[in-house]
Amino acid sequence: MKKVILALSLVLALTLTACGGAKKEDTKAEGNKAVAEEAKDGDNKIVIGVSPTPHGEIIEGLKDEFEKQGLDVEVVNFDDYVQPNLQLEAGDLDANYFQHKPYLDSFVEERGIKNLDVLGYVHIEPMALYSEKYKSVDEIEDGSEIIIPNDPSNGARALILLEDAGLIKLKDKTNLNSTEKDIAENPKNLKFTAMDAPSIVQVYKDSGAAVINSNFAIGKGLDPTKDSIFIESKDSPYANLVAIRKEDAEKEKFKKFIEVLNSDAAKKLIEEKFKGAVIPAFGK
Q: Where does lipidation (S-diacylglycerol cysteine) occur on this chain (predicted)?
């Protein structure tokens, strides 16, 4: 009997030891896997701030391409033009994609920010003039109200657009910092109302006409190529860019990121999805 009890005790002890050892090894393996995944995320993760349309749609549409490059891209949507740069500068974002170079230049000068830089250019969103009241530029009546964006770079861009439309004449059309004070001729005595760019699409129907950034127009279901009464030319200097902090410029993950955004896959996505409302502008 004692021999039987002793044998059973040995079997039980061996079983417990085996189970305990397997559990310990499993835990260790899982821990190593978690550490590896965490390291992978740290090396390859990019948190990017975007305007939902078209920037966010472009990033989401290229998700498979980013994954092929080993990148884990997380999108954070913004509905304004201020926070994406502030949060990038503060380190809460790794990159942003919503603005053009004249706006970035104006922003960093105004805010005294010195560590933001251009990673690369992706597309142009032709700015356009919209009106519920008039079907063409020629129909715009004397004294009509024209709404334009109130930030310096987009305000100047709107005035250049209005000159191209034949409504005003600027002292120097090449001045990307023009304001209403730089209007040399205003034959129709148009009245200008400046307001936040995101808000214009909400109220433009109450004015004679309004200049609207295409990301906000598209976001509200407007097609710049069909619904506007005048649209910016394709050789616009206002290509939208990806911004990063200067110290990150040489990191491999950002090089891979902009390669995807400047790829044939990106070109195809932009052309097929937006049909001329957004135009590829790689390296512009």
A: 19
Q: What is the mean pLDDT of residues 85-112?
A: 96
Contact between residue 44 and residue 61 where contact means Cβ atoms under 8 Å apart: no
Q: Which amino acid is it at 203?
A: V
User: Is-same-fold flag (43-125+238-280; 128-231)?
Assistant: yes
CA distances from 102 to 10, 19, 107, 233 (A): 79, 66, 9, 17
| Residue 239: other Cβ atoms inside 10 A | 20
Confidence of residue 283 (pLDDT cuts 50, 70, 90): confident
CA distance 165 to 188: 13
| pLDDT tens column, 73-98 | 999 999 999 999 999 999 999 999 99
Q: What is the mean pLDDT of residues 29-50?
A: 63
Q: Where are the domains of the chain?
A: 43-125+238-280, 128-231
| pLDDT for res 273 | 96
Q: Across-strand partners of 183?
A: 170
- For residue 233 the two structure tokens come to 């030319």
Looking at residue 35, its pLDDT comes to: 37
Using an 8 Å Cβ cutoff, are 194 and 150 in contact?
Answer: yes
The pair of three-digit structure tokens given for residue 257, joined into one six-digit string: 């990121």
- Residue 44: φ, ψ to 5°: -120, 0
The letter for the amino acid at 25 is: E
Single pTM value for the model? 0.77
Q: Which CATH architecture has domain 128-231?
A: 3-Layer(aba) Sandwich (3.40)
